[in-house]
């Protein structure tokens, strides 16, 4: 599905501000709204970003969702609970003020976590990120272990029947059955998104399913970062450019 819809890099250009009018806005978090940091817990939602998201959600009559690999619990801790959230790569959905729609955690994830912990304990710099539904092995601070991390994650995925999600300097094991594309499709079927034009901003390979789904539903993807073959229609250079683009479409408070 992805290969046939990839556009080559030179065809990508910046989106026009008018694209946001009438849109259902889906925003990836890390690398799209906040810059990539050394560690997952080194990231925060600053007041400027929170204010911008609130203004956008207001202007779009609530049609704004954060679609992230982060868990809903983490997104909530980061101060994003007032927005529609799709967490853990589409496995969880949370509408503001309602119970989180989430599957039960798999026993296989606890087993994978124990193996990641033992492995990382012997290799300084590796970091295990524990989520309710998945577990991540980060090697950003110890890139010399990248190949070993990949071998372990690949073996465990096979052994435990889990899906290997590749991220930025991260191997994550999780259940299959959902992705950012399926989360966008699910949200587009319900209020307040239904009937609007989906627009999804993302930076990572894991965002490609979201770009494909946005296009499939009559909207567009916006790739954040360096040009690459992608299913996105538009591109912005980096987080600052995303924030500038979004801010240009909603008025500052008096
Ligand atoms: O879908 P996203 O919102 O982009 O989340 C993807 C993963 O983001 C986080 O990891 C990445 O960002 C970290 C902080 O900048 C960085 O240290 C790490 O190297 C990146 O892979 C998060 O920790 C993961 O749980 C998300 O799946």
TrEMBL record:
<dbReference type="Pfam" id="PF02358">
    <property type="entry name" value="Trehalose_PPase"/>
</dbReference>
<dbReference type="InterPro" id="IPR023214">
    <property type="entry name" value="HAD_sf"/>
</dbReference>
<comment type="pathway">
    <text>Glycan biosynthesis; trehalose biosynthesis.</text>
</comment>
<protein>
    <recommendedName>
        <fullName>Trehalose 6-phosphate phosphatase</fullName>
        <ecNumber>3.1.3.12</ecNumber>
    </recommendedName>
</protein>
<dbReference type="GO" id="GO:0046872">
    <property type="term" value="F:metal ion binding"/>
</dbReference>
<dbReference type="GO" id="GO:0004805">
    <property type="term" value="F:trehalose-phosphatase activity"/>
</dbReference>
<comment type="similarity">
    <text>Belongs to the trehalose phosphatase family.</text>
</comment>
<dbReference type="InterPro" id="IPR044651">
    <property type="entry name" value="OTSB-like"/>
</dbReference>
<dbReference type="GO" id="GO:0005992">
    <property type="term" value="P:trehalose biosynthetic process"/>
</dbReference>
<comment type="function">
    <text>Removes the phosphate from trehalose 6-phosphate to produce free trehalose.</text>
</comment>
<keyword id="KW-0460">Magnesium</keyword>
<dbReference type="InterPro" id="IPR006379">
    <property type="entry name" value="HAD-SF_hydro_IIB"/>
</dbReference>
<dbReference type="InterPro" id="IPR036412">
    <property type="entry name" value="HAD-like_sf"/>
</dbReference>
<keyword id="KW-0378">Hydrolase</keyword>
<dbReference type="InterPro" id="IPR003337">
    <property type="entry name" value="Trehalose_PPase"/>
</dbReference>
<keyword id="KW-0479">Metal-binding</keyword>
């Amino acid at each position: 599905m992805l290969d046939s819809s990839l556009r080559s890099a030179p065809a990508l250009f910046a989106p026009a501000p008018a694209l946001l009018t009438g849109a259902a806005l889906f925003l990836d978090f890390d690398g799209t709204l906040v810059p990539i940091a050394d560690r997952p817990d080194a990231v925060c939602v600053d007041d400027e970003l929170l204010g911008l998201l609130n203004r956008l959600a207001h202007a779009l009559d609530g049609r704004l969702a954060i679609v992230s690999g982060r868990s809903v619990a983490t997104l909530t801790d980061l101060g994003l609970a007032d927005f529609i959230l799709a967490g853990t790569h589409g496995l969880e959905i949370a509408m503001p003020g309602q119970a989180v729609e989430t599957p039960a955690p798999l026993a296989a994830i606890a087993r994978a976590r124990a193996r990641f912990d033992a492995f990382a304990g012997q290799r300084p710099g590796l970091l295990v990120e524990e989520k309710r539904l998945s577990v991540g092995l980060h090697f950003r601070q110890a890139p010399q272990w990248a190949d070993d991390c990949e071998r372990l994650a690949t073996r465990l995925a096979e052994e435990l029947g889990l899906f290997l999600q590749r991220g930025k300097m991260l191997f994550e094991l999780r259940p299959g059955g959902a992705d950012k594309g399926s989360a966008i499709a699910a949200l587009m079927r319900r209020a307040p998104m239904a009937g609007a034009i989906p627009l999804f901003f993302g930076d990572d390979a894991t965002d490609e399913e979201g770009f494909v789904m946005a296009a499939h539903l009559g909207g567009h993807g916006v790739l954040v970062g360096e040009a690459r073959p992608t299913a996105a229609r538009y591109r912005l250079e980096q987080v600052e450019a995303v924030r500038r683009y979004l801010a240009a479409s909603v008025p500052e408070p008096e």
